[in-house]
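Extended Data, record Carbohydrate ABC transporter membrane protein 1, CUT1 family
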Amino acid sequence: MATVDQAQTPPRAAEKSPRTPHTGRSTRRAVTVFVAPFAVLFLLFYAAPIIYAMIQSLLMVERQGTFGAPQQVFGGFTQYALVFQDEAFWASVGRVLLFGVVQVPVMLGMALLFALLLDSPLLKGKRFFRLAFFAPYAVPGVIAAIMWGFLYSPSLSPFGAVTSEINFLDGSLVLWAIANIVTWVYVGYNMLIIYASLLAIPTEIYEAARLDGASNTQIAWRIKIPLVTPAIILTAVFSIIGTLQLLAEPQTLRSFSSAISSTYTPNLAVYTTASIPNYNLAAAFSVVLALATFILSFVFLKATQRKVSQ
């Protein structure tokens, strides 16, 4: 009889099964509560402005007569035709691409070097140097540009002996003066990302390498750098996006240099066009610039991933 009673007793799992749908609903409710704030902010401040800009780029302003009231009408791709005919805009795109080809590798190379120094067992005072390397990032870009503008200006710089001989605000050097400001500000930010990736590497790998007779330089070159390559690629993508969005530094330095025109960078061209005001053409500029940024970042990411996987 005891055997029969035990056979008829349902398992514990069967007793709990009716409560499973309730648990699933609770999980979905909790996920919704946590995701909803991000989704609302994403839609309001990211998706909605993009959609609005795309709609504005398809419109154009018409007037009834010379002094008629302006009226927005559907213009199709008229604004985009004007974008591709604008030589000043495409010259600014070429300018920032040259800027990125030179500045981004230099900045990321310095960030990697500083991160390796902070991770080295030979460096003393790591807390001080970590703060010193990161401190420039805490300075807003406009403030940094004003500060460096005074340092570059021959009549205001405390290094007048240098700036009187080399005019950093001249047309041939002002682009690299801007590159110096951007590098000074963002090296610490990129260093922090790479350094965090270095801290995630298990120390057992270093111990095994030292037992095999590897020096600190060999460990850095053959172990650390390959393992932080994904972090370097991430910072490179961020830097490419930031390069094409360059605005604060050239806009601020216009007060110090006449070599910086109102269309010196793509974002400056968009800002100037919107200030006319010609919002529809500025929206078309923005959409084209966003697509170019996406394509360039996507191609770079795919190319580097393919190389890493090989």
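Summary. Strands lie at 59-63, 70-74.
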